[in-house]
C-alpha cells in the first residue's frame, strides 16, 4: 500500500494567475485612487460647458468625446477633451470642472464616473481576486491536500 499526494499543477497555476491579476488590479486601482485624491486636494473648481464633440469610430460603435470649455479664476479660457460618453452628450450642457491651478490644461469633469469609476472598480476587484486566490492556496498548503490510498 502506497500513499501519494494528489497535486493538480493546472489548479495551482490558475490560483497563482488569479493572485497575480488580483495584485495588478489592486495596485492599479490604488494608484488611480491616490492620483485622483492628490489631484482633488490641489484642484480648483469651475463650471464648463460642452462646446463640441469628437466622434471616434471603434469596432463597437462610435465613441463621443465631449470638448469642454471653462474659464480659470484668472480669466483664461481652457478647452479639454473629456472621457467618452454614451449616449452622445448635448452641446451646451453645463458640467462641473476641476483643474490644476499651476497647469489649467490638467482638467477633469468633476463627476463620480469621470474621476472615481476606475479606481472604485479596479481596487475592490483586485482585492477580491487576491484574497480569493491566496485563501485557496493557503487552504491547500494548510494540510487539506487529499491523499489517495492505492492497494497493491
Characterise this structure:
By secondary structure, the protein is an alpha+beta fold. The chain has one domain (2-150). It contains 2 helices and 7 strands, in the order βαβββββαβ. The strands form 2 sheets. A 5-stranded antiparallel beta sheet has the order 4-3-2-5-6, covered by helices on one side. A hairpin with a 2-residue loop joins strand 5 and strand 6 (103-109). Helix 1 packs antiparallel against helix 2. The protein is elongated, with a radius of gyration of 25 Å.
Topology:
Layout: E1 2-5, H1 9-42, E2 44-58, E3 61-71, E4 77-81, E5 94-100, E6 103-109, H2 112-144, E7 147-150
Antiparallel strand pairs: 1-7, 2-3, 2-5, 3-4, 5-6
Helix pairs in contact: 1-2
Q: What labels would you give this structure?
A:
elongated, alpha+beta, 35% strand, 152 residues, disordered N terminus, two-stranded antiparallel sheet
Short description:
With 152 residues, this protein is an alpha+beta fold. The protein has helices at 9-42, 112-144; strands at residues 2-5, 44-58, 61-71, 77-81, 94-100, 103-109, 147-150.
